[in-house]
Design a protein that fits this description.
alpha/beta, Rossmann fold, 3 domains, 16 helices, about 25% strand, globular, AMP-dep_synth/lig_dom, Putative cyclohex-1-ene-1-carboxylate:CoA ligase
Length: about 500
């Protein structure tokens, strides 16, 4: 296994990491997209020229620059150009529209806004003008990126502890929160991910998620530390994307549970013939992973699956080790890296402290409410640590269904439902009930050709699987597709509660 060069692991800022990697392996590729290849030295050189162009526009250290760009080489170049200057950048997921974008621009007080112009049929520049954004400019292709002479630039930032990143939590029933990160917290997250996955310079990764997601810098730090490339997907869909995976010989893929399921669905179209012959590892996080998914990936895709736990506030908390036991990989979220402290409260809530934890939120009141008296981040997740130090998540506090005074874990029921041959995916929610307080409602998505499901058949299956009677669903809803977000395809349970809960 390749070891991260000591000179790289000591980098204090993201730009310093770029410079050190470019000096070490200048001609090795870092980003691949269709027929284009960007080397580590190319990334450094293009980002510095872009930084000079931004500087000419008036971007200075500390200037807040928002960008809403797809997963493209140019997006990475622009982001590192801003890191070279020491600007404060606030990435916005490209699928967001007026409400979310307007909120992010107002709350961050962005002085510049980079957009892709018309992308996937939507005019982002027009939306920016409609919202009254300042300093609008397009940055979609090499020709539209700002460009200039690096000689005009001041020295790069030397401190990695200043807040230079504002990421946005995905808003559900309320406005999103602006999460404050530093270069140091992003370096810590990416470094932990790289070490946990045991990757080497011979690997080829893939970015099938929005680069504007917190996973963007997390993943890119990993590429810079270990010196291997990743394929970027501007629009990810299967089976269309398979050709790119094969052409570039991708060895590591993933994203979240929904991505694992998509790869499995493609594999089942051609059993016995690997959909990606070079693939050796699926990895991801961001959503619960049923044990059945792990076993199916191992059996049918013939590769390892490591799943982790992270959030916008802490991009890497725990991660499965490829060399761990099947039991731990199937049923836990892995172990925390050195420097990540996990505290489980008496009520089972997970709390965190460490270098990868964010500084808080844009709103000081939200920051005050998010940390306990010992400086641990209050996650809202519920779980426990095993004797071996592995973290088991059992749900979120708001996903605990209280039926007749008894606590019921939605995840326990969901994991059992995933074993049913006529269930493609499932989400279990609690709905208000005058008699019980809450009733258990199972919402399922069925695979093509599946036999229709009934509530008696589902409850009989769950009882046979050993589920306690008081946890059995009292309501079953079958939907064509579960509602998901556009980043890691996480199920939006609040929409299910709104749809199937009481009216008014």
């Amino acid at each position: 296994m390749d070891q991260t060069p000591h000179a790289l692991s000591e980098a204090r800022t993201l730009w310093e990491l770029v410079e050190r990697r470019a000096a070490l392996t200048p001609d090795r590729p870092v980003l691949l997209q269709e027929d284009r290849v960007l080397t580590f030295e190319g990334l450094r050189e293009r980002a510095e020229r872009c930084a000079a162009g931004l500087y000419a526009k008036g971007v200075r250290p500390g200037t807040v620059v928002a960008w809403q760009l797809p997963t493209r080489i140019e997006t990475a170049v622009l982001s590192f150009a801003l890191a070279r200057i020491g600007a404060v950048q606030t990435p916005v997921i490209p699928f967001y529209r007026d409400k979310e974008v307007g909120f992010a621009l107002r709350e961050s007080k962005a002085e510049f806004f980079a957009v892709p112009g018309i992308w996937r049929g939507f005019d982002h520049a027009e939306m920016a003008r409609r919202l009254g954004a300042h300093g609008i400019f397009e940055a979609y292709d090499p020709e539209s990126l700002p460009d200039g002479d690096p000689a005009v630039l001041p020295p790069p930032p030397s401190s990695g502890t200043d807040v230079r990143w504002i990421y946005w939590t995905s808003g559900t029933t309320s406005d999103p929160k602006g999460v404050l990160h530093t270069d140091r917290s992003l370096l810590a997250g990416g470094s932990c991910l790289a070490h946990a996955l045991r990757l080497t310079s011979s690997d080829v990764g893939s970015m099938a998620f929005p680069y504007a997601h917190i996973a963007g810098p997390d993943y890119t730090v990993m590429l810079l530390l270990y010196g291997f490339p990743a394929v970027m997907f501007e629009q990810f869909a299967l089976p269309e994307a398979l050709a790119e995976y094969r052409r570039h010989g991708v060895t590591v893929a993933g994203g979240s549970t929904a991505f694992y399921a998509m790869f499995l669905a493609e594999q089942r179209k051609q059993p016995g013939e690997p959909v990606i012959p070079t693939l050796r590892l699926l990895a991801g996080g961001g959503a619960p992973k049923p044990p059945e998914i792990y076993h199916a990936v191992r059996k049918e895709l013939g590769c390892q699956l490591t799943h982790g736990y992270g959030m916008t506030e802490v991009p890497m908390i725990t991660m499965g080790d490829p060399d761990d036991t099947p039991e731990n990989l199937a049923t836990t979220e892995g172990r925390p890296p050195e420097g990540m402290e996990i505290r489980i409260t008496d009520s089972g809530e997970v709390r965190l402290r460490g270098a990868a934890v964010c500084r808080g939120y844009l709103d000081p009141a939200q920051t005050a409410a998010a940390f306990d008296e010992d400086g641990f981040l209050i996650t809202g997740d519920v779980g426990h640590l095993t004797p071996s130090g592995h973290l088991v998540l059992t749900g979120r506090i708001k996903d605990i269904i209280i039926r007749k005074g008894e606590n019921i874990s939605a995840k326990e029921i969901e994991d059992l439902l995933h074993r049913h041959p006529d269930v493609g995916d499932a989400a279990v929610i609690g709905l208000p009930d005058a008699e019980r307080g809450e009733r258990v409602c199972a919402v399922v998505e069925q695979p093509p050709g599946a036999a229709p499901l009934t509530l008696p058949a589902v409850t009989a299956f769950l009882r046979a699987a050993g589920l306690s009677v008081h946890k059995l669903p009292e309501q079953l809803e079958v939907v064509a597709a579960l509602p998901r977000n556009e980043t890691l395809r996480k199920v939006l349970k609040y929409q299910l509660r709104e749809r199937f809960g009481p009216v008014g």
